[in-house]
Amino acid sequence: MNRYVAEFFASFVMIFLGTGSMVLADQSGGSFTHLDVSLSWGFAVGLGIFLFSKFSGAHMNPAVTISLFFLRAHPKRELLGYLALQISGGVAASLLLRLLAPEHEFLGASLPSGSAWESFYIEFLLTFALMAVVLLSGWFKKGALFLVPAAIGGTVFLEAYFAGPITGASMNPARSFAPAVVSGHTEHLWVYLIATTMGALGASGLWLIWKRYKA
């Protein structure tokens, strides 16, 4: 499979399953809980990595791709292509969700429950931690097919469970961009585009310093 096609479908699957679980929770009358939504996000991320990582690396996240580029672990010639396909995969997922649930207002958009700056700081820390796990997962043995999806998916689950009610637990610019644009609720989008990217770059910068110190 072409790596760009794989990145598109990985992003599509993750965002459709994740935001779809949020729409389902809103429409289920309480039978589909916040815990179920958090598990869905963790499963969606883990599934995307398991199915598509051998083709594209399954970044599914512009903040991750930009950070890997910063670390010289992702080629410059592929940067814009990855970012475009992650975003377009997310938009396609949100458009399909709009078709399936036309009456739903938000489509799983990331929205702060408190102030925008509170969500900014929390999203920075969440994405910092997620990127740290992504980088540390590179130490797993190549044959351990389930460890990387489990580690990263498990991190997403925990962060979504604890921070979801406060910020929506985005950790991903594409995940926030797609439902915001399709639903028309872009009022807090800047928080999730900037804080997540800065958080991932912060973890990558610390990783670079640590590796140089270790050397």
Can you tell me about this structure?
This protein is mostly helical. The chain has a single domain, classed as Glycerol uptake facilitator protein, CATH 1.20.1080. The protein has helices spanning 3-27, 34-56, 62-70, 79-100, 116-136, 147-167, 173-183, 189-214. α3 (62-70) runs antiparallel to α4 and α5 (116-136) runs parallel beside α8. The longest helix is centred in the last third of the chain and has 26 residues, at 189-214. It is globular, with a radius of gyration of 16 Å.
Using only C-alpha atoms, the radius of gyration works out to 16 Å
Biggest sheet record: none
CATH uppermost class: Mainly Alpha
Low-confidence runs: none
Q: Do you know the CATH topology?
A: Glycerol uptake facilitator protein
Count of all domains: 1
Give the overall shape: globular
Report how far the terminal alpha carbons are from each other. 37 Å
What structural class should be given to the helix and strand makeup?
A: mainly alpha
The CATH architecture category equals: Up-down Bundle
CATH superfamily: Glycerol uptake facilitator protein
